[in-house]
Amino acid sequence: MAGNDPALGRQTKNDESQVIREAARRRTFAVISHPDAGKSTLTEALALHAQVISEAGAVHGKGGRKGVVSDWLEMEKARGISITSAALQFAYGDTVINLLDTPGHSDFSEDTYRVLAAVDCAVMLLDAAKGLEPQTLKLFDVCRHRNIPVITFVNKWDRPGRGALELCDEISERISLRPMPLTWPVGEAGAFKGVLDRTDGGFIGFTRNAAGASRATIQTMTADEAAESVGEEWEQAGEESELLSISGADMDYDEFLDAKATPVLFGSAVLNFGVKHLLDLLVELAPRPTPRPDVDGGARSLEAPFSAFVFKVQTGMDRAHRDQVAFARVCSGRFDRGMVVTHAASGRPFATKYAQQVFGQQRSTLDVAYPGDVIGLVNASNLRVGDTLYAGKPKVTFPGLPSFAPRHFATVAAKDPGRAKQFRRGVEQLEQEGVVQVLRSDRRGEATPIFAAVGPMQFEVATDRLQNEFGVTILLNHLPYTVVRRLGDPNERKLIDGHSSEVLTRGDGAELALFTDDITLRLLLRKHPDVKLESLAGGV
Ligand code: G4P
Fold it and tell me: Which of 306, 253, 366, 279 lies closest to 96, judged by CA?
């Protein structure tokens, strides 16, 4: 740490070149998939390769196995789904992999969208029998919006599924992403013999172990050896691979980086087939952290003093301590635990004595971090999603994260008026964490805010949290609004407030106009064609 004064965020030339070297080793990504495609299994398999966890199932936590990733919330345990996000960091050879977990339930997606603001690459995980499913499509939209390069892993090839060509066609037709298979299955889904490695023409063979064994035996062969021992399926795979080359499906790195084309691998997460290949691909192809643009459009160079932005805030991870953790992605410089940084929104100093690496229930103290890494800042009660932290000078502010267009609205009130104070504190907390968006208006009054959510399950999480953490039972009254627009001019509020529409103010100051349906909105626009209404950013 020579020459680096953490308190001042000063860096010497040596530190700068170290930061550049460390950033170049980082690969920060998330898996996007529909529930049940095998994300937990894949995460587990990736982590096992790097041997960060000793036992299969330690990440996953389903079926009575020990859970590590994200089963801290009671509700999550009961449902066996992952609602919270965590970051898993592990070394793979000389590379440092940061895998950001994304909540998988189709209803609870706002959190997932935000996680995608903190990654440099995504792995799109498809179930071979199902192809592109609704949640995958939604998440892919966010990747497209943010220009995030995507690697595709077609999973569950060990059991009957759809044809490889059909799946590739679906990717190019439905999401206009050109598939570039790097491996090609030998034997159809369910009768899988292995893959043809399209980069060197060799065969990676796959033999199921004895029943019950969770790993396949993998054997590599040259093309000639495979032609001899595999037979017809090998020949067919070879022909298909040639056809792919003719039809322009070969790897093009620039198109991948431009998010126009996706490398595709076929495998089986549960049998650990194709998983090492995926890791190698991440090392080889996934972009390393690059300078992040700030609000003024300039880019904060990687070697500039420490800066980071908060992409997630979470409370109650550790019941015993009831603390709040803000997860921030490092954008520049070196982070040293203990350094005092500035909170850009308030201009106040923020001490980082308790920085941690948080992965589900496991926490470890984090001493040093570099661009691409995620730091968990404990007791960060002033930090909000989207906030910037920085060290030294000049000040930097990164653009805030988009709030997604809510589709579900409900008034909320404490059942017991005697708990009004706890209710107010609890609502503030949930708003700060972004569990739900909170809307208010003078007309409705402070005591009955409105919860707005992208998916209805956010209401359940909010209800559960208010009950368990603040001892407040709430009464939710669902409102019939389905359409939301941002009101450009607050003076036009009176044109909208009525029976089938009203204007409410969100915590970030945005004035949101809610309508019961499109017809109401259209009628209003016909009557007042000049009223300024915009669609919400990132309204996926
Ligand atoms: P998710 O996190 O995306 O929701 O999926 P998860 O990993 O929980 O996997 C969903 C189910 O699919 C699990 O079965 C898992 O074992 C299975 N699975 C994952 N990858 C593969 C694969 O490559 N091949 C096959 N055949 N199955 C796979 P489950 O019965 O729901 O749970 P479990 O009790 O087996 O854990």
Answer: 279
